[in-house]
Design goal:
Helix content is 28%, strand content 22%. It has 488 residues and is of the alpha+beta class.
Length: 488
Amino acid sequence: MPRYYRSIWLLFLLTLCLPAAADTVGRQPSGHRAGPLLLSDFTVAQRVDAQQGATRGGSSHGSAPQFFEDTIRLVKENYVEELSDDEIFLGPLARLTLTLPPPCADGIVLPGDCDRNPRDCLMAFVQGVAVRCRIPKDQVFRMVLNALLPGLDPNSGLLDAGMLKELSIGTSGKFGGVGMVVTTKDGDYVVISPFEGSPAFKAGIQAGDTIVEIDGQQLHGLPLLEVLRKVRGPAGSVMSVAVRDGRSGAIRRVRIRRQVIHIPPVRYLNLGSGIGYLRIVNFQQDTADEVRKVLSRMSVRGKENPKGLILDLRDNPGGLFDEAIDVADQFLPSGTITSIRGRNRQLNREFAASPKTNSPRVPIVVLINKGTASASEILAGALQGRPDVRVVGEKSFGKASVQAVYPLRNGSALRLTTAHYYTPDGRDIEGKGLEPDIMEEVTAEGMGKQRVDLLKLAELEDDKGVKKAMECLLSSQSPGRVTFPTLF
């Protein structure tokens, strides 16, 4: 089964993840953009062959009505929930009127109780807007879609050519920007996590903070591409950022110097006492290979009477879905890793561990927090519940919706939520997060100690989460909750 997936989180740069949980652009053969591809972190969508891509979207240019018809068909066939014609054709109209210039919006009358086919009512409304507001009809159709899709859920929408280009950035682990991952929530840009050592990290930006302004302009409601243009700039240039604290709500302003961000995806240290520490920063193209190298040489698989492994997924925003599956496969000797389920059964998939005998045979403590999202939640969820694994920390972010990206005829693409992914025991954590086996609250006072390089042994030994993990591994402590609750 091919694994062409990627997380759709937005790297602030911002680069899109569909995360992992499942966030993704599939790697594809040159010469054709098949659909659906991925998109964000999670976000996962399966790549299909070029012939199907051509019939579902291809690269030829069509009129706006055909572009509209293609998009509506994809929504009706593949959206995670079944939608009525009223929801599709009439639902976005009230939102659309809010985007019209006041002189013409004042005279626009909504269809109200449509006594005809909802589609016919929409077409009459579009014609009226085009005439009264003197807006080309093609543009009005795009406005309808831009009102419809975000109203379905925050992760669905149209992507223009510039945003599609963003999907090719970030999977190499090297990009220009300030180094944080954000998601959209109610029109705001909320930080999932900063990358360690990045300009955003050094500025004290934390998971849960909201980016309110960049260089004096408010971001609320701005399209992603416009925000991207504000974030981008030559390395060494400075931008002013207003940040709303995720805990206190206080707003502070910081100056951040842009730089080229390179993210080593994996960090490892031997903590002594037969315990290894493995931190996965994100899931990029080489993450699984780097984990494989670490597992081949770390002491917990050597001759030192290993006691266990600490797997740190805190502030891991996700990334490439297939990399998360590969990493989970390295730890699991058998069983289900995750499954993807949606209304369109053709998109449903189950991912199972490949039979093997060389997976780590030591107790594992997985550290998570509210910045653990998407692909990293897939890994933590795959390991949770096994007799030799404990999950410790805070409730994770809760990004388990799956977005597919469908190329359209006019060079743009549709990002659409098509499914949710589920943990091996059947939990849907979308909007809920993973509950740790052992809850370890991270207070505001403790954040300073948690925001360390995590490569220095002395600083790791002072880290509250690592201390708790060590206690678990060096004792016979059992999980603090029923592993698989009947209700979730």
